């Protein structure tokens, strides 16, 4: 039942100008050397927000305790800091405060104790190497975690709380994608001091915390000179077909923030509705004149039917991060390859796998005429996380076919085909068929891509939804 349930969650994924010859001057033009763009400036104060997932390798040292709560969690909060840049070197300090929501065992099986971590705070120094808009950094400092513990020992029920401290080490990458805005991805390890319960016998809690977080920062000082800041979007009444195609290309040089609702009808033994609302920011990052790195993040907000009761559990699911390395000047075949990983960030076990997943991903597409035709592929395996939850080996393929028409309208089909390789025969594949339509248009000067589509799962595991309605709205920010 649990494998089937987890499989159900997994299934829910430019203008040019020309001059006339008569406009050319009769005298030889004066040569002017091109002015190189000033490098990105990282110095100054910044504030921002972060989100991600964490997992603990600690345990309550209770003989016979077969489950330890607090193994995976969703993390979200704010950070602030200051950077000082000296050439290619950066020195800074950063502090953050995050709320934490840990998952617990699905069933009330004999569990002699569990731990919650309610908030996490860290302060660390940062040192890094800068290459224009790119920053690679390391962190070293300390942190605090407020924990609650519950023990259900024979003859003893104890509840306690403690704020523990420890040392922090971490690192990551950050990219300045706008004059005042940067995005980052980082890993942190927080080693915490032991905590002992006030019981007889005393129970020691050995715990540490690993975190993977994505964040966005606002810099009070612009990263580029004022003259170098991008001009606002042009005031043309309708977006061009180039923008239509870019909005349908998963690895286009286009910043976008899609919001996608996936409604799956008649799910589970009580025929309830499953809703997966994905927030999917996409940020292209220029590695060089020849290569681009495209970051695609999926943050799912889930309403999941229970496999045992006629009810739904609501919360945040596991967050997935994809990174595609793609040529900046591709030929007819546009492609990108890289890693994909999923963080066990679900705030309830029913909303995630409890595993840290990792694997390869790739995109291939062509854009002949009015068409955008391609496929996105990935496969992920569990490489860490809760040892008491089932292993994961999952495949995803999303072919997409779009035909663009006048005034921003287009026809589309992009079914999400999945396979749970570890499921029993006949229960592995979910294969939808269907499609819909959409339009790229402007609200004021803001380009928007809206779409609606319906899919029928022609092949599906027992108990999963037969029909899905997908509605999406994406804010588009063309790179100038």
Please provide a written account of the structure:
With 480 residues, the protein is mainly beta. It has helices at residues 2-11, 241-247, and strands spanning 44-55, 59-60, 72-86, 89-102, 113-131, 134-153, 156-178, 181-192, 195-196, 204-206, 208-219, 254-267, 272-279, 282-286, 291-305, 312-316, 319-327, 334-343, 355-366, 371-385, 393-404, 409-413, 417-420, 429-443, 446-459, 467-478. The longest helix has 10 residues, at 2-11. It is globular. Mean pLDDT is 84; it is low at 1-6 and 9-31.
Which structural category fits the helices and strands? mainly beta
Radius of gyration: 25 Å
Average pLDDT confidence is 84
What percent of residues adopt helix (DSSP H or I)?
A: under 10%
Quickly count the helices: 2
**Number of β-strand runs:** 26
Q: Could you give a short account of the major beta sheet?
A: 15 strands, antiparallel
Order of helices and strands: HEEEEEEEEEEEHEEEEEEEEEEEEEEE
User: Beta-sheet strand percentage?
Assistant: over 45%
The low-pLDDT segments are 1-6, 9-31
What quaternary form is this? Answer: single chain
Distance between the termini: 50 Å
Described by the principal axes of the CA atoms, the overall outline is globular
């Amino acid at each position: 039942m649990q494998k089937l349930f987890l499989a159900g969650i997994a299934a829910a994924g430019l203008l040019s100008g020309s001059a006339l010859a008569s406009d050319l001057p009769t005298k030889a033009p004066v040569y002017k050397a091109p002015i190189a763009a000033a490098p990105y400036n990282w110095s100054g104060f910044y504030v921002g927000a972060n989100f991600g997932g964490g997992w603990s390798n600690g345990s309550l040292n209770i003989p016979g305790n077969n489950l330890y709560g607090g193994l995976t969690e969703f993390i979200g909060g704010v950070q602030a800091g200051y950077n000082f840049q000296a050439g290619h070197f950066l020195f800074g300090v950063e502090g953050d405060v995050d709320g934490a929501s840990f998952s617990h065992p699905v069933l009330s099986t004999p569990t002699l104790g569990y731990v919650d971590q309610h908030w996490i705070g860290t302060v660390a120094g940062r040192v890094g190497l800068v290459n224009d808009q790119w920053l690679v950094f390391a962190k070293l400092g300390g942190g605090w975690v407020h924990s609650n513990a519950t023990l259900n020992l024979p003859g003893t029920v104890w509840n306690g709380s403690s704020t523990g401290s420890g040392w922090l080490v971490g690192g990551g990458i950050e990219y300045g994608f706008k004059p005042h805005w940067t995005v980052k991805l980082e890993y942190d390890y927080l080693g915490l001091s032991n905590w002992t319960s006030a019981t007889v016998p005393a129970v020691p809690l050995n715990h540490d915390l690993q975190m993977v977080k994505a964040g966005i920062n606002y810099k009070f000082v612009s990263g580029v000179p004022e003259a170098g800041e991008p001009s606002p979007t042009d005031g043309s009444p309708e977006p061009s077909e180039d923008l239509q195609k870019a909005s349908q290309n998963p690895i286009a040089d286009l910043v976008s923030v899609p919001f996608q609702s996936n409604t799956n009808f008649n799910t589970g033994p009580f025929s309830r509705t499953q809703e997966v609302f994905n927030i999917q920011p996409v940020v292209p990052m220029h590695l060089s004149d020849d290569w681009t790195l495209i970051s695609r993040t999926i943050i799912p907000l889930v309403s999941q039917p229970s496999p045992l009761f006629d009810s739904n559990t609501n919360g945040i699911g596991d967050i997935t991060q994809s990174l595609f390395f793609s040529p900046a000047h591709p030929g007819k075949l546009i492609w990108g390859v890289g890693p994909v990983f999923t963080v066990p960030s679900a705030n309830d076990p029913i909303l995630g796998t409890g595993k840290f997943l990792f694997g390869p991903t790739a995109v291939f597409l062509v854009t002949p005429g009015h068409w955008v035709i391609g496929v996105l592929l990935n496969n992920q395996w569990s490489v860490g996380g809760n040892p008491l939850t089932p292993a994961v080996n999952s495949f995803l393929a999303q072919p997409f076919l779009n035909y663009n028409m006048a005034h921003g309208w287009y026809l589309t089909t992009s079914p999400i085909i999945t396979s749970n390789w570890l499921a029993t025969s006949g229960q592995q594949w979910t294969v939808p068929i269907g499609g819909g339509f959409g339009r790229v248009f402007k609200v004021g000067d803001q380009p928007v891509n809206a779409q609606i589509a319906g899919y029928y799962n022609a092949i599906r595991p027992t108990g999963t939804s037969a029909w899905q309605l997908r509605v999406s709205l994406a804010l588009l920010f063309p790179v100038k």
